[in-house]
C-alpha cells in the first residue's frame, strides 16, 4: 500500500516532534544558547565565505555537464543553481532541487528530459564522492587506532564502494537501470508528457561516459564541493570552541549528511541533531556543543541559500512574465 503525500508529511512531522521533544528533555538549552551567543565572528565569516565558493563550484560543474549538449554561461548556471537551493532545503531527500530543471531547460534550450538527466548525474556524483569521503575517514581513523571496530567492516565497505563504482561505470548496467531511475525521479504529473523524452534522457546519461573530460571535471568538482562543506562545518565548530581534529569531520560529516537526507523528518530536524550528538561524542564533544554545531550549520547554510534562492526564483519568474507579455504584445501587433 502506497502512502499518500499527506500521510507521509504527518508521519514526518510526528517523528520530528518526538525527536525534538526528546532533545528538549535531555539537553540544557540555556547552555546551547550561551554557546551560540559566544560564537567567534572571524570563524563565522570564514564559514560564510564557503557558501559563495559552493555556488561557484556547483555552477562550474553544471556548465561541464551541459557542455556536451550545448552552451551555457556561468551567470545562467549560477541562477539555475540558486533556484534549486530553497526547494532542496524544504523537501525530503533534497529532491526539490530538481525544481531548477525547468529553469535549466528554459535558459539552455535543453529538453526537460535532458535537464532531468543532468540533475540526476549531479546527485550521483555527490553521492559517490560522499561515500568515498566516508570510506577515507573510516580507514584513516582505523589505521590510526582511534576507531575500534573489526577490520572486516573496512574490507566490506571498500568492497561495497568498489562494486558500486564498477557498476556505475558499466554502460550495460546503467542502461538497464535508466528506466527505473527515470520512473523514480520524474513527477507523476509529468510522466505521460515526458514518456517520449526517455530516449533523450538515456542519451544524456550515456554521453556523460563518452565525454571523459567533462565527467572528470564534474567528479573533481564534486570532491571539491564536499571538501568545501567539511571546511565550512569545521570553521563553524571552531567558532563555538569545538577543537576536534579535522579527521573526525572527514569521518563524521558524510555519515551525518546521509542521515539528514533520509525522508523521515521535516527539513532534517531531530535526526540531524541526534546524529551530531551521537557521532561527535566519539571526538569527545559535549552533547550541548554538538547540538549547537548542528543548529549553527543549519542557520549558516540553509537560511542564506534559501533567501538568495527565493530571490533568484522570484526574479526569474518576473522576467518570464515580462518576456511572455512582450511576446503576446508583439503577436497582437
UniProtKB/TrEMBL annotation:
It comes from the Bacteria. The keyword Transmembrane helix applies. It is a multi-pass membrane protein. The chain crosses the membrane at residues 7-27, 39-57, 124-145, 151-169, 290-313. Its main location: membrane. Keywords: Cell membrane, Membrane, Transmembrane, Transmembrane helix. GO terms for cellular component: plasma membrane. It is found in: Cell membrane. Pfam families: LPG_synthase_TM (PF03706). InterPro entries: L-PG_synthase/AglD. PANTHER family: BLL5419 PROTEIN. This is Flippase-like domain-containing protein.
Amino acid at each position: 500500500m502506497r502512502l499518500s503525500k499527506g500521510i507521509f508529511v504527518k508521519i514526518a512531522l510526528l517523528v520530528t516532534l518526538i525527536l525534538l521533544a526528546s532533545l528538549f528533555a535531555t539537553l540544557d538549552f540555556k547552555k546551547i544558547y550561551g554557546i551560540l551567543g559566544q560564537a567567534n565572528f572571524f570563524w563565522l565569516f570564514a564559514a560564510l565565505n564557503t557558501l559563495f565558493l559552493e555556488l561557484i563550484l556547483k555552477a562550474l560543474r553544471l556548465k561541464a555537464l551541459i557542455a556536451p549538449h550545448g552552451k551555457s554561461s556561468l551567470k545562467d548556471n549560477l541562477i539555475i543553481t540558486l533556484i534549486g537551493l530553497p526547494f532542496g532545503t524544504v523537501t525530503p531527500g533534497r529532491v526539490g532541487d530538481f525544481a531548477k530543471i525547468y529553469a535549466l531547460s528554459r535558459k539552455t534550450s535543453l529538453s526537460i528530459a535532458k535537464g532531468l538527466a543532468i540533475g540526476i548525474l549531479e546527485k550521483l556524483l555527490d553521492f559517490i564522492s560522499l561515500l568515498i569521503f566516508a570510506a577515507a575517514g573510516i580507514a584513516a581513523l582505523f589505521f590510526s587506532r582511534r576507531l575500534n571496530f573489526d577490520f572486516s567492516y573496512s574490507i566490506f565497505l571498500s568492497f561495497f564502494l568498489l562494486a558500486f563504482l564498477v557498476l556505475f561505470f558499466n554502460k550495460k548496467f546503467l542502461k538497464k537501470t535508466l528506466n527505473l531511475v527515470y520512473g523514480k525521479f520524474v513527477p507523476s504529473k509529468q510522466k505521460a508528457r515526458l514518456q517520449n523524452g526517455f530516449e533523450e534522457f538515456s542519451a544524456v546519461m550515456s554521453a556523460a561516459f563518452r565525454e571523459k573530460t567533462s565527467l572528470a571535471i564534474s567528479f573533481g568538482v564534486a570532491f571539491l564541493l564536499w571538501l568545501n562543506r567539511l571546511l565550512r562545518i569545521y570553521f563553524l565548530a571552531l567558532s563555538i570552541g569545538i577543537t576536534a581534529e579535522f579527521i573526525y569531520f572527514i569521518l563524521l560529516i558524510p555519515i551525518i549528511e546521509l542521515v539528514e537526507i533520509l525522508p523521515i523528518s521535516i527539513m532534517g530536524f531531530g535526526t540531524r541533531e541526534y546524529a551530531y550528538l551521537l557521532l561527535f561524542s566519539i571526538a569527545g564533544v559535549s552533547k550541548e556543543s554538538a547540538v549547537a554545531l548542528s543548529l549553527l550549520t543549519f542557520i549558516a547554510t540553509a537560511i542564506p541559500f534559501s533567501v538568495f534562492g527565493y530571490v533568484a526564483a522570484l526574479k526569474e519568474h518576473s522576467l518570464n512574465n515580462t518576456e511572455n507579455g512582450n511576446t503576446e504584445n508583439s503577436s497582437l501587433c
